[in-house]
Amino acid sequence: MFGLSDIIKFLFSFFLIMPIVTLIHLSGHIFFVTIFGGSEKKILIGCGNKLFAFRNIEVRKYYFWNGTCEFKGLKHDNRLTNTLIYLGGYL
Question: What is the pTM of this model?
Answer without folding.
Answer: 0.87
